[in-house]
Design a protein that fits this description.
5 helices; 48% helix; 153 residues; 3-stranded antiparallel β-sheet; Sufe protein. Chain: A; alpha+beta
Length: 153
């Protein structure tokens, strides 16, 4: 089993300390909240989509260091991402933590620093909160868009 120092290392501290996008959006296309009953962490995200890509992002993060580190990488990389790319990164994170899968690579490569969390099941939920919230916000944006199209008919 990994040592706790592995999951609370200097790079995770740096990522958590560099969290951005902490202003909520006033008129989001989609919004959602992820909450961990186990530790009480909560992440709420707002996003706007334009031409099939995320054009604006805001979040409120009340989470442990691991949740903050995940949210930091998300805020840094989400603008310009497609919904499918975000869903793929979410799948990769779940697979990395729950199925010993490979960590995300490329511009999402900093998420690999969270790989030791796989050995601490109780900390996985807070690490994944921002990914859960982003996926639900994408679903919310799609539902709102569909409702607007229906109303326009």
């Amino acid at each position: 089993m990994a040592d706790l120092d592995e999951i609370y290392n200097t790079r995770i501290l740096e990522l958590a300390g560099a969290i951005s996008g902490t202003e909520r959006l006033s008129h989001p296309d989609g919004t959602a909240t992820g909450h961990s009953k186990l530790c009480g962490s909560t992440v709420t995200v707002d996003l706007n989509l334009e031409d099939g890509r995320v054009s604006a992002f805001g979040q409120s993060v009340k989470a442990c260091l691991l949740g903050q580190a995940s949210a930091s990488v998300m805020a840094r990389e989400i603008i310009g991402s497609t919904p499918e790319e975000l869903r793929q990164v979410s799948r990769q994170m779940r697979a990395m933590l729950k199925e010993n899968g490979a960590p995300p690579t490329g511009r999402w490569g900093d998420l690999a620093v969270l790989e030791p969390v796989r050995n601490y099941k109780a900390r996985q939920t807070s690490t994944l909160l921002v990914f859960d919230a982003v996926e639900r916000a994408l679903d919310d944006a799609a539902a709102r868009s569909d409702a607007s199209l229906q109303a326009a008919r």
